[in-house]
Amino acid sequence: MNRTQRISVNAEQLRLAFDFVSFGEPLEHSAYISLDTGQIYWHSELAADADEDLPDDLETSDRYVAVPHKTELNLGRHLALAFVDEELPQDYDIVAGFFRRRGAYARFKDLLDASGKLDRWYEYEERAMEEALLGWCEENGIQPVEE
Predict the structure, then answer these.
(1) 8 A C-beta contact, residue 139 and residue 6
(2) Among 103, 113, 121, 139, which is 20 to 30 Å from 9 by CA?
(3) Do 86 and 35 fall into the same domain?
(4) 61 and 79 both lie in a single domain
């Protein structure tokens, strides 16, 4: 496929695949898009017996592209700290400290809730994810289509 051709992918399924991949740790869950058909294939290290529906050439062919994990698109710690820098700059060092230990997001969200900023965070995060995922699609010749 040359770069001027774009493969159409169901936008809702793409978002679900992105959420699935991002739900766990990197490489725990994966999803691949066929560059020939736009079909999305799902895989989880936690349910390896479900792999029977995966194409045999998934790992060896260049006709599939892996759906990124949110950390690959700088949507993890980086995004949280950018939000805090904008909305709660006085708490930046505290939140940066959260991300040096496990359980950072729970503490981060508790602080946002106590500050009345949790809903604002969810809006910010959603907008950033949509923009990053659309940018990734553009780079990979994928056209999300609402069906």
Answers:
(1) no
(2) 121
(3) no
(4) no
- What 3-state DSSP class applies to 8? strand
pLDDT per residue over 8-54, tens digit each?
999 999 999 999 999 878 778 899 999 999 999 998 877 755 556 78
Residue entry with tokens 């006085």: 90
Contact 12, 147 (CB under 8 A): yes
Whether 59 and 111 map to the same domain: the answer is: no
Same domain, 44 and 96: no
Confidence of residue 59 (pLDDT cuts 50, 70, 90): confident
Q: How confident is residue 5, by pLDDT bands cut at 50, 70 and 90? A: confident
The span from the CA of 73 to the CA of 67, in Å, is: 11
Range of 62's domain? Answer: 1-67
